[in-house]
Each structure stands twice: as structure tokens, then as C-alpha cells.
Amino acid sequence: MNKMIRFVALAFIIVVLIQTQAIAKMSDGLAALLNERQTNIWVEGEFLGDFILGSRGRIEFIYLDEKLSRAIAEEHTLAQWVDELNQYFGSPATEKKALFLVQLEVNKPWSFNVSDLVIGDYKPKKEDIISLSWRNPDETLQSETKWQFAFVVPESIVYKNKSIKLGYKEDVTEWKIPQK
Q1: Each residue of 51-88: pLDDT tens digit?
Q2: Is the separation of the CB atoms in 172 and 166 below 8 Å?
Q3: Distance (Å, rounded) from C-alpha 158 to C-alpha 64?
Q4: Quick one: how far is CA 109 from the chain centroid?
Q5: Rounded Cα distance, 129 and 140, in Å
Q6: Rounded Cα distance, 104 and 163, in Å
Q7: Which whole number is the average pLDDT over 10-34?
Q8: CA–CA gap between residue 98 and residue 82 (Å, rounded)
Q9: Are 167 and 173 contacting, i.e. CB atoms less than 8 angstroms apart?
Q10: Are 109 and 57 in contact (CB under 8 A)?
């Protein structure tokens, strides 16, 4: 147990350092936009103070609206997968839809099902995934892997200046939708 706590603490410190370096490189404007539009969910984890123990994985949600899409296109300081998935903003598949980017970081084998995602009262379907990088959304993901994909939800789900639930199954958080 003591080894596990040390391992989780070290992993947490490394993640914080990496994110701090990434944020330090981006402009204050992009950092502010991302801060309003990004949230993380730890699936099946137990909280121990600032640490999460035993989680199946982490889901990083990024709400991609026009402001953030333009800032990403101008700066290119975020992770490569964000730059790549930014191409879907404004595509025909996003017409009258809200676009989300997701990165899954898998800690232990995970039978992921896209319809278990929670976006307000909407449950995404396979057809809502618009990125080519996501080949098999309903499969067992192996430990130490990362998967990224873009998906859309009806625009009506994303009400401006309101909060909606984002998460996976019962692991959800309230997320305030940013102003245009």
C-alpha cells in the first residue's frame, strides 16, 4: 500500500509538472479559454486528499467552440492530438452540434462504452464520433494507453451560462458552460 501511495504521488507530481510547463508556454488568453472549457473526470477512483487511488482511468473533456478553435489554430501550443482534432470544428458534421474532444488515459483495463459518457442528459452514440482517429470506441482498452476522439452532441444540450453534467456513468462533475 505504501508503494502504491508513493507511485500515485509521483505520477501526480509528474502530471502537474508537465501541465504546468504546457500552460507556461501558451498565452494567457489561450490558457483562460482552455481553463473554462476543459475538465477531467477520474473513473472509479477513490479520493485521498489531493490524490486519486485505484482509478480505472481519466477522461479529459474539452469543449471546442469557435473562440477556442481559433486560439488553438493560431498558437499550436497544446498537445498534438488537440491540434489534430481541432480540424473538425466547423466541418459539416458539427453543423447545429456542440463539439467535444476527449482523451482517455487508461490506468487498468477498461471496457469503455461511448454511450456511458454523460453530457447533460444526452448519451452519445457511435454515430456521434466524428474523428477518424477513433476506430473501435466500444472495446476493452489496455493499461497505459491513451485514446483521443472528437464527438458531437445536439447544440441544445449546451445551454450558455448554465451548468451541465460531464462524466462517465456515475463519475460526473458539474461543468459551467462558458459564454460566447
Answers
A1: 888 889 999 999 999 999 999 999 888 899 999 999 99
A2: yes
A3: 11
A4: 19
A5: 17
A6: 23
A7: 65
A8: 16
A9: yes
A10: no
Q: Are 152 and 97 in contact (CB under 8 A)?
A: yes
Burial class for 179, CB neighbours closer than 10 Å (0-12, 13-18, 19+): exposed
CA angle 153, 172, 169 (to 5 degrees): 75
Q: Which cell numbers hold the place of 63? A: 469543449
Place of cell 501558451: 26
Contact 103, 140 (CB under 8 A): no
Say how far apart CA 33 and CA 77 lie, in whole Å: 13
Grid cell locating 86: 481541432
Quote the cell numbers at residue 75: 498558437
Helix (H) or strand (E) holding 156: none
Count of Cβ atoms closer than 10 Å to residue 96 Cβ: 8
Return the pLDDT at 3.
60
Helices 28-37/66-75 angle, 10° precision? 140
**Strand pairing report for 38-43 and 97-106:** unpaired
> DSSP character for 143?
T
